[in-house]
Prior knowledge:
The protein is mainly alpha-helical. 53% of the residues lie in helices and 4% in strands. The protein is elongated.
Amino acid sequence: AALKVKKQQPFILNRMLAYIGVLIDDLVIKGTEEPYRLFTSRVEHRLVLRQDNADLRLAKFAFSFGLISKDKIDKINKKQSAITESIKFLNSTKYENTTLAKILKRPDMSYDKLRKIYSGLKVLPEDITNQVEIDIKYEGYIERERAIVSRLKKLENKIIPQDSVFSQIKGLKKEACEKLIKIRPYSIGQAMRISGISSSDIALLLLYLDSRKKKNVPRGTFLNKNKKILHGG
Length: 233
């Protein structure tokens, strides 16, 4: 609201960045006729949206809007650096022909237990050791989830102009057209999550966006499935 008053671009926390992004996205594209409850099961990327890394994920946004101090963001950046350096050290240092990272991955092993085995490990605050343990022990799952998020970001970043006249896109199903008009999705990613929107409907939207970008088609024009330009109202 403050950004709109200042005539600046809106700030959107999408469902890949925060739980509130999931809540807002669900209410916008699905609606609700009863009290909405944000269960963790609603969050596709809950493996990377954890309460223990909320500061690492969101502090940069808070700082950019003046919600936290320079000292606070510096402290969080130092925490991130300490985590990164510790993980790098564990992956590159060996003990009895096995990297410390592989030893830490063992079910019965913790960072503090590992420090008793290998005295060269630094003594770290509990919040940092917790992050290091999580990142090491669940490395494969977390990296796979981050790769999925990275691919989905491309769809979330494909913005659908808000002046789009969906009724002018030939080939679009009536149900899809009605839902797009009602919901006015912000991006292709959001449009894909609308019930009743098929992959062929998304293909038409993508065709329009790509063609508009390449040919600099004026606002309010659309392409039908034969790639002919239709001028919308």
